[in-house]
Amino acid sequence: MSRPKRRVVNFLQEFSIPLIAGVFAALLTANLAPEWYHHWFGAIHGGGEHGDGHHEVFDLGFSLFGHPVGLQFLVNDIFMVFFFGIAAKEITEACLPGGSLNPIKSAVSPLLATLGGVFGPVGAFFAFLLLWFNASPDSFPEGVELWGNQSLSKGWGIPTATDIALAWLVARAVFGKGHPAINYLLLLAVADDAIGLGIIAVFYGDPTNPARPEFLGLVAAGMAVAFAMRKMKVSSWVPYIFVAGPIAWTGLMLAHLHPALALVAIVPFLPGPKRDEGLFVEPAGGGEAHAAAHHDHSPLHQFEHQLKLFVDFGLFFFAFANAGVEMAGIGPLTWIVLAALVVGKTVGIAIFGFLGTRLGFPLPKGMSGVDLCVAGFIGALGLTVALFVAGAAFTDPLLQGQAKMGALFSGLVGIAALFIGKALGLGKRTQPAGENRGESEAA
After folding, report:
1. Residue 278 CA to chain centroid, in angstroms?
2. Among residues 13, 12, 26, 15, which one has the least CA distance to residue 387?
3. Which of 107, 218, 383, 424 has the fewest other C-beta atoms within 10 Å?
4. In angstroms, rounded to a whole number, what is the distance separating the alpha carbons of residues 424 and 418?
5. Which of 280, 304, 288, 311 minimizes the C-alpha distance to 4?
6. Would you state the pLDDT for residue 100?
């Protein structure tokens, strides 16, 4: 690829343009041509043979484990396997010596803040839901219950996750490159999404098919195969992903848990470097130098290096297939999810971060309490994973649409954070990235 083309591709990947473009394309299409959009993507939004009685238009004519293979299946049950696999790679790397999760002592403050970033939104969701439901029960669809298998309370997991890529992008713009709050937020987002993956696996299986945990033995078998490959020093990532991966994927399918998490159990077994050189650390020289610095011949790095382009651009189709909600679908759940993200994340992260300082785990050098609060606010960017959880939490098209609009509106947090950062002058206090990295590791 020529240098100008590479720069364009790097720009599109770095700023999550495919994901953002997919969101806007879905919103425009769903509102300007709703019949066309729902004709093609109706099954993903509550249609299909388990929804309004219509089958998917794009149907390959066969099923896997009782699931018709169509657009919904290809996007949410297969493509997202690789998305979460890349996320698992980042978590695995962060656990290596030199990574933000190693040693644990250096990560206590942001890990405590991570707990606040989960418990805060959950508590805020239930608080706002109860307040709204008690004040105006008629504003919810008829027959909808507060508690139960398919109740409003099922949405509690939606505001728990943070979009890693967008949070990093906004944090750099708000704090300036090299600020310790960026690495703090990145560690928080990685750990936050690790918890989010667990929430999806445990609490958001298919409600029409109860979980069958005995089939998780296949997931363990996939992990054993990956472990054996590592012991045999298999030097290619392909067998790990396409031999051990499908075994774990089949186990999750048969266990009636979401198969998108299959590679989360496999990726940690990929041989990698001895230490982490830093998540999203940028050396002098820009995009190409950054790519060169992260180019490694280990299977773990090659897995990301060879699939990240596919995943980053594939997020356009994920967003286009899942974010198409008509503006008329805005309702109480929209504002409850959004408020739970904004209030819950900001307050939860700030309180638990300050609690860490009282327990003897200070913030990284150069990071103030104001920085912590702003980082918590940026953590309210839920978008990608929040959309994914919303689709799993609700099968009712109306409730799902309202919840997804709340997840989509969380993207406005990034714009608000830019104005807040400018008003507080946060971008003026920057230091070299390498220096801050050392400080944050020592904190």
Report:
1. 19
2. 26
3. 424
4. 10
5. 288
6. 56
DSSP string, 310-340: HHHHHHHHHHHHH----GGG--HHHHHHHHI
**Neighbour-count burial of 69, counting CB atoms closer than 10 A to its CB (0-12 exposed, 13-18 middle, 19+ buried):** middle
The residue that leads in pLDDT, 101 or 344, is 344
Task: Round to whole Å and give the CA distance between 409 and 331.
Answer: 12
List helix spans (H) across 151-286.
164-175, 180-203, 216-231, 237-239, 245-254
Cα 149 versus chain centre, distance: 24
Angle CA(389)–CA(391)–CA(393) in degrees, nearest 5? 65
User: Are 92 and 321 spatial neighbours (Cβ–Cβ below 8 Å)?
Assistant: no
Q: At 258, phi and psi to the nearest 5?
A: -70, 120
Amino acid letter for position 440: S
The Cα 374–Cα 425 span in angstroms is 12
Average pLDDT, the chain: 80
pLDDT tens-digit map of 412-427: 898 999 999 989 888 7
Tokens of 414: 């990034």
What CATH topology corresponds to 15-442? Na+/H+ antiporter like fold (1.20.1530)
Copy the structure tokens of residue 326. Answer: 């008509």
State both tokens at 264: 């989360």
Burial class (CB in 10 A: 0-12, 13-18, 19+), 227: middle
pLDDT at position 290 over 60? no
Query: Which DSSP symbol is given to 207?
Result: T
Domain ranges of the chain: 15-442
